[in-house]
Amino acid sequence: MVLYRRNRVSGGTYFFTAALADRSSTRLISHIGILRKAFRRVRAERPFDIDAFVILPDHLHAIFTLPERDSDYSGRLRGIKAAFTHGLRKGGLELPSRDKTGYLLWQRRFWEHTIRDDTDFARHVDYIHYNPVKHGYVAHPAEWPHSSLSRFVRNGIVPSDWGAPNQFSEQQFGEREPP
Predict the structure, then answer these.
(1) pTM above 0.90, yes or no
(2) What is the distance, to the nearest Å, from the Cα of residue 108 to the centroid of all Cα atoms in its chain?
């Protein structure tokens, strides 16, 4: 088994991607209420700030900031995944079993990146908010309902037309240009 080395910074800020095993699934948005409840439950048990997020049909991106002297983001993501899975099962949704380790709903692992500075933070927030456009779900980021962009607009952090067509290139959002 591969031993992954993850960077852990107490009180750190992290960018995450967590995906469903079935990338054609729409369960995250078709059961958004259960996902929100999973986030609330884990935050009540083990507090953290959600700085930015986007929920897409088959994956999510988020930036969390953990409390001082706490670096256990893995436990929080595991808790969110488990609570969402449990909520689906409780609601009567049949899920295929993976093996003795649970259900085949989520990919086993997740991707994380430790936010290094304000510029890195801003780039990842932009990536999160532009993601529904990148995947072709909407033409303008503000059209996507499952995102923290509306909070950023409401708080005056970005203008209401942020991410309008032809305002940015995808390369500005963490994507590398093909060689």
Answers:
(1) no
(2) 15
